[in-house]
Every structure is written in structure tokens, then in C-alpha cells.
TrEMBL record:
Family: Belongs to the anti-sigma-factor antagonist family.
Protein's name in the database: Anti-sigma factor antagonist
Source lineage: Bacteria, Pseudomonadati, Bacteroidota, Cytophagia, Cytophagales
Biological source species: Hymenobacter mucosus
InterPro entries: Anti-sigma_ant (IPR003658), STAS_dom (IPR002645), STAS_dom_sf (IPR036513)
Start and end residues of each STAS domain: 1-109
Family annotation (SUPFAM superfamilies): SpoIIaa-like
Length: 109
């Protein structure tokens, strides 16, 4: 798993590349746990190259959700592959998290 950061004004975009499983979820957790992430109003998660997500990977996002909400930071997923999106849907996370098709829509949320 490779995570690339790109920031502009009040938005941080994290691009995920590879498989988000138990071992790589530790890296993602440390990225999302960084104190400076709460300085942004939006954190966009680019899932275009995310090929797989395990329950541990999902757990990382869920564990940070309340912290982001308390700090008024919007967490938005975009460019999600169908097989990854299906995992979110099966678990009902598509109603808990904001998932949009494109980066333009993510930026507009």
C-alpha cells in the first residue's frame, strides 16, 4: 500500500494505491491520526487505485470518523472501484460515509 498526500488550501487528498489490509492499515491509521489533519476542513480519499480493503482497513476509517466529525472535518471518498464500493455497501457503510464518483464532486461536498 502506498499513500500519497496532496494538499491545497483547506483540503487534504490521500491517494491510496494497492491493498488496504491489516498490515497496511497501520500506515493509514498513522496518517489519519496526525494532529495537523484536523487543520483541514476536508479530507478526500482517492480510491482509484485501491484494489482491496479488509475489515481492518474499514476499521481505520470508522475509528477516525467521530474525531473528524467533532472537528468539523468532512471525510469524502471518491473514484472507488466497484468491488471496493460493494464492500462498503454490504456493510452499510455507504450510508455512514460520504462516497461520490469523482474528485470534482468530492471537492464540492
Amino acid at each position: 500500500m502506498k499513500i500519497t498526500q496532496h494538499s491545497s488550501e483547506n483540503t487534504l487528498t490521500l491517494s491510496l494505491d494497492g491493498e488496504l489490509d491489516a498490515s497496511s492499515s497501520v500506515l493509514l491509521d498513522s496518517e489519519l491520526n496526525a494532529p495537523e489533519i484536523l487543520n483541514y476542513t476536508k479530507v478526500l480519499i482517492d480510491c482509484q487505485r485501491l484494489n482491496y480493503i479488509s475489515s481492518a482497513g474499514l476499521g481505520v476509517f470508522i475509528s477516525h470518523l467521530q474525531r473528524f466529525q467533532d472537528a468539523n472535518v468532512k471525510l469524502v471518498f471518491f473514484n472507488m472501484q466497484e468491488k471496493v464500493h460493494n464492500v462498503f455497501e454490504i456493510l452499510g457503510l455507504d450510508s455512514l460515509l460520504t462516497i461520490v464518483p469523482s474528485q470534482a464532486e468530492a471537492a464540492a461536498v
